[in-house]
Amino acid sequence: MSLPIYDSETARRTVLLRRPPDEVSLPAAVQERIAALFGEPLTAEQAVARIVSDVRRRGDEALREWTRKLDGADLSGGLQIPPEDCRAALDSLPDDLRAALQTAAERIRQFHRRQPALSWIEQNPEGTLGQLIRPIERVGVYVPGGSAPLPSSVLMSVIPARVAGVSRVVVCTPPGRDGSVNPVILAACALAEVDAVYRLGGAQAIAAMAFGTPGLPAVDKIVGAGGLFVTLAKRQVFGVVGIEGLAGPTETLVIADESANPRRVAADLLAQAEHDPLATALLLTPSRRLAEAVAAQVDELLGDTAADRLERAEIIRASLAARGGAVVTRDLDEAVDLCNAYAPEHLNLVVRDGWAWLPKIRNAGGVFLDEDSCEVMGDYIAGPSHVMPTGGSARYASPLNVWDFVKIVSLVGLNRAAVQQLSPLAERLALAEGLGAHALAARLRKG
């Protein structure tokens, strides 16, 4: 059986147990490659630190060297992809694909335009108080390449930044061995009006955007998901630049009852598992019958004789074996409690009267309500950004949105009468903190 079935107590100790990204065990092949590249065994954190430090010190030369070592690509022709190449890629798309991207872009744009991000200034007898909303000036977007290039991630990351008023948005995405970038990614960059696209991936791309090089000016904030090395690099450069979060492997949790269609639930789990062997696809249900039916459907859909042969079947099997499964819970209340504790990136709520259960959901990056409204709609076309908090960070973090691309500037314009009234209070508080110069500055405003 491709989909393991657990009781809730076993699941708490296994598939529902959260681990920090730096505790993820690296495959033996990756460990061997790190040792070969650096001449000694290193942890992922140590390897990333060396790459980041080298890019900070040697700039473009280090970028070319690490891209050659890690991606096998020659960047002697330049880091940046000519803008006309992006426009040509968009013009050459098949009509149906171009129309799909355009529709997705417009829906993403309209959704984020509804998000309030407004300055306010209040005039009162004391003077003026307010908040000024100012867009971040320069944003870097990391777009994964690899075995599944994601043009949708371009739209989902760049368009909210444009709606927020960011003046310069650049994209870094890893090149193939021939130095080229997937043309659909380039087309999406043109459609989203990206200012510059660079053929850079991995930790070296994050370091370049954070510290700047002659070929890639520094940005103020970096957003976008990537693999473990990208995530660790974002953590290491945080403080030099802002980041929207630390994205781990993608994850979906389905809460379903006996009313759910087993084949559809199975398909939703497969859709998540095909991203990555480290992806998580879990079903929580009080119905053992449903769990067994979904497991049977998973086997059928993964079979060699399936009508829709899945090209990434081996990735799906690896993901489900290591991190996936069905969890049979005592009831739906326990399923919801497990969900809130796990805080999934995506929650598919496939139960009778999903609206009645929605108020009980506290922690999730996105909720996909009822059977028709599956996560794949959110991945591509619904409107909200599909860049969502992973690794349990939905307990405190949000999907990428307009607020990720703006800053609040507090405005204080008190008049003389208000200052004279408030300065003795400010002076007293300053003295309580032992800050004499603060007290002096307040005291000089009394008269």
TrEMBL record:
Active site: E345 (proton acceptor), H346 (proton acceptor)
One cellular component term from this protein's GO annotations in UniProt: cytosol
Entry annotated with the keyword Transport: no
Domain of life: Bacteria
Entry cofactors: Zn(2+)
Keywords: Amino-acid biosynthesis, Histidine biosynthesis, Metal-binding, NAD, Oxidoreductase, Zinc
GO molecular function ontology, one term from the record: histidinol dehydrogenase activity
Catalyses which reaction(s): L-histidinol + 2 NAD(+) + H2O = L-histidine + 2 NADH + 3 H(+)
GO BP terms, alphabetized: L-histidine biosynthetic process
Positions of Zn(2+) binding: Q272, H275, D379, H438
Cofactor: how bound: Binds 1 zinc ion per subunit.
Annotated EC: 1.1.1.23
Binding-site residues, substrate: T250, Q272, H275, H346, D379, E433, H438
UniProt key word Oxidoreductase: yes
Biological or metabolic pathway of the protein: Amino-acid biosynthesis; L-histidine biosynthesis; L-histidine from 5-phospho-alpha-D-ribose 1-diphosphate: step 9/9
Functional description taken from the UniProt entry: Catalyzes the sequential NAD-dependent oxidations of L-histidinol to L-histidinaldehyde and then to L-histidine.
Membership in a protein family: Belongs to the histidinol dehydrogenase family.
Protein name: Histidinol dehydrogenase
Organism ancestry: Bacteria, Bacillati, Chloroflexota, Anaerolineae, Anaerolineales
Gene, per the UniProt record: hisD
